[in-house]
Design a protein that fits this description.
single chain; about 260 residues; alpha/beta; Rossmann fold; nine-stranded mixed sheet; two-stranded antiparallel ribbon; 13 strands
Length: about 260
């Protein structure tokens, strides 16, 4: 692959990333860089956390210089409409005018959908906590480059309590499962071609297990997603079994496919 100039947008607040580091967990930006390195080591990176003031305006001034943008996950909920979230939506709208290729992952997809006029809500059919099962690629998705060489039905790392409710005008639905109808989507806005996914091919199951342990109290007492620690431990065992069955390159196929796409376009 040729040298690429990529912008990685960090969706988590600085305080949350500090919590990650204190717990010995990679930030989502670190996970993205590690995954991308499996397929292209000739990458020049710029990193931006739009919820922070650091280098915000400098990055906006040179958005046209990037071959692509990857916008990762976050623990935020977009309907809370805080100043930090508003800054992220504002920045995504700026990107639509200046960045041709956007890979929007989980929170990134929710920001992109919202910035393009769609809506996001709390998921009505439950959550994905560490894993999403039985994602089915649509007829349109089978023809789309994001799912080249991907199995038609697959499991994948995921962590989300929210879902896309309405999609932007002109969107193509690429994949779904029983929990979230919108698991994969493509739409265009401004000059941007946006590939959006609700799950995390760039994050390992091991990290997902670490995140579950890190958020254990929150998952039991606030989210009410588990009854107790035994319930969580049983869930983790299921993810560990899936981890044993999963080839890392099949897990990261979407990352590889997007890099190949922007390398050729």
């Amino acid at each position: 692959m040729k040298n690429l100039n990529l912008l990685i947008v960090e969706g988590n607040l600085i305080s949350e990333n500090k919590n990650f580091k204190d717990a010995g967990i990679q930030t989502h930006t670190e996970s993205l860089k590690e995954s991308i390195a499996n397929y292209n080591n000739n990458v020049n990176y710029e990193i931006l956390n739009p919820s922070s003031e650091d280098n915000f305006n400098n990055i906006i001034d040179k958005l046209e210089s990037f071959d692509g943008l990857v916008w990762g996950g976050s623990s935020l909920n977009i309907y809370n409409d805080t100043p930090e979230i508003k800054r992220q939506i504002y920045f995504m709208k700026e990107c639509f005018n200046k960045v041709k290729n956007i890979f929007a992952i989980c929170w990134g997809m929710q920001v992109a959908v919202t910035a393009a006029g769609g809506t996001v809500k709390k998921s009505e059919n439950g959550a994905h906590i560490g894993i999403a099962r039985d994602i089915k690629i649509s007829v349109a998705g089978l023809k789309h480059p994001i799912y080249k060489d991907k199995k038609k039905l697959f499991n994948t790392p995921a962590f989300n309590f929210d879902e896309v409710e309405t999609i932007p005008s002109g969107s193509i639905l690429l994949a779904s499962n029983l929990v979230n109808k919108v698991q994969g989507i493509q739409f265009e806005k401004g000059i941007s071609k946006i590939w959006g996914i609700q799950y995390h091919p760039e994050i390992t199951y091991d990290k997902m297990i670490s995140l579950i342990n890190f958020r254990k109290d929150r998952l039991i007492n606030f989210r009410k997603a588990f009854k107790n620690e035994t319930d969580i431990d049983d869930h983790i065992k299921n993810i560990e079994e899936e981890n044993q069955r999963t080839n890392k390159h099949s897990r990261m196929q979407e990352v590889k496919n997007w890099l190949e796409f922007i390398n050729e376009n």
